[in-house]
Amino acid sequence: MSARTLPPFDPTDPLGIDDLLDPEELAVRDTVRQWAADRVLPHIADWYERGEIPDIRALARELGAIGALGMSLDGYGCAGASSVQYGLACLELEAADSGIRSLVSVQGSLAMYAIHRYGSEEQKQRWLPSMAAGEAIGCFGLTEPDHGSDPAGMRTTAKREGTDWVLTGRKMWITNGSVAAVAVVWAQTDEGIRGFVVPTSSPGFSAPEIHHKWSLRASVTSELVLDQVRLPADAVLPEVTGLRGPLSCLSHARYGIVWGSMGAARSSFHAALDYAKTREQFGKPIGGFQLTQAKLADMAVELHKGVLLAHHLGRRMDAGRLRAEQISFGKLNNVREAIEICRTARTILGANGISLEYPVMRHATNLESVLTYEGTVEMHQLVLGKALTGLDAFR
Q: Are residues 252 and 381 in the same domain?
C-alpha cells in the first residue's frame, strides 16, 4: 500500500487498534459507550460532588438490559460475551467513571462469578438470572478492617450449629454493600476458608455505608457486619475450599481493571488534548508549544500501549491461556500509567484541571483507589517478582 492510500492519522486511535476488533466487539463497545454517554456523563460530576448515585438500582437494571452484568458468563440470563468484549465494556464504563465500572465488576466478576463457578445449581438458579438482569445487586465480602493484602488472616468465622452455619465477623470497603440483595462472604471454618451466599435480609446482617470518601464518590462503599447470621447448610459454595476460591474471583475482576483503567486515562487524555488545542497563551494555543506536545505524545504512547496490553491479555483469556501473573502484570502497569496520564493531563489544564467541569481530577482521585484495591502495587510487584525469580518474598 502506498503512502497515498493509507488512511489518515487518527489522534484517537494512533496505532489503529480498532483494526484488531471484529464487528461484534465494536458493536459491544459502541453500545456501552453510548449508554454511558446518555446515562452517566450528563450526571456524573453532580453524583461525584454529592457522593451518591440517586437511583443506583435503576442504573443496575439498565446495565442488565444492555447485557453488561456478568456478561462473560454463560447461561442463567448472562450474555456469554468474550473476554475482549467484557474488557471493552469495562474500558467504556470507566471512561465515564471508575465507580460505575466498579459496580459492574463487583456484580459480575466477583459476586456472580463466585456463584457461577463454585455454586450449586440451586444457588445459580436462585441468584444469577436476577443478578444478570440487575434486579438483584450483589457484593463480595473478603477484605476486613485488619486484613486486606493478607486475606488468609481473616477473622470472620462460620461455625456449624446442627445443620446450620452461623457467621460472625466484619468486612470492610465493600462495593455495593448497602444496596445488595446478596453477599458472597468468605469466612474461616474448621474445613478452611469457605464462601457463603448470604441474603442481605438475613437477621444479624447489616451494611452501614462508608461516607467521607475523597475517591470513588459515585460508588456505594460499605462495611458488612455479620452478627450471628444463621444460614442453612446449602448456603455454602460447595465447589471450593481455601483461598483459591476468592483469589480466582479477584483475578477475574483484576482483568477488568486492566481495561477499565485505560478508560479513565483515555478520558483524561482527550480532555487535555482538546484543551491544548483551544486554550491560548502567549498568542497561540498551548498545544503549539514543544513542552505541551511532549506531554501529549508521552501520554498517547502510554495510553495506547496499555490498551494493546489489555487486548493481548484478553485474547489470552479467551484462549484459556491467561495466567494470574500476567493479570498482575497488566494491573500493575495500566493503573500506574493511568494515574500518571491523569496527573499530566491536570498540568495541561492548569487550574481548570481541578474543576469538576472537566473529568481529570475525578479520574485521578478514583484511580488512587483502583491502585490499591484488588491487590496493591506492592503485592503485584511481589507476584511478578516471585514469577521471575522463583523466590517467595511475601514474608
A: yes
